[in-house]
Amino acid sequence: MIRRECSNPIEDSRKLLNLVLFNGLIGNADGHAKNISLLHNENGTVLAPFYDLVSTLVYPQFTKKMPMKIAGKKRNFAHLQKHHFESLSEEIGMKPNIVIKTALNLAQRIMDVSEVTAIEFKAKYGSIEMVDKINSVISFHARSLIDTLSKNSDQK
Question: What is the pTM for the complete model shown?
């Protein structure tokens, strides 16, 4: 639909890829397609700003699987391997190296930012268990993703 409707389908496709990756990294198992919208304005149709970005994995009653299918089924983000990202690239019509590079870059950026944010938050408000849990999810997912994709890249 993005390729067909959006004024800048390449940019909006990359934004959507970043959304899927971001939701996986923060542990948002509630990032369904119903949370994605298009805006029509004087410049044409564009992907709307993203919303409902919350770490649901810290709540035991929520599913641990991502709401969007990758490689044909809903998966736990922590269990994704390089071949899943290669399948995702086919599914969305992007080159595998772009998807993997985007995933690695976002994982590193989110890990860096979440660590700094946690330090700043604790300095201002003290330690809050839920914030620590969310940062733990982010750190685990980001490190796992970097290790998985880097290790698989080194073996080639």
Answer: 0.89
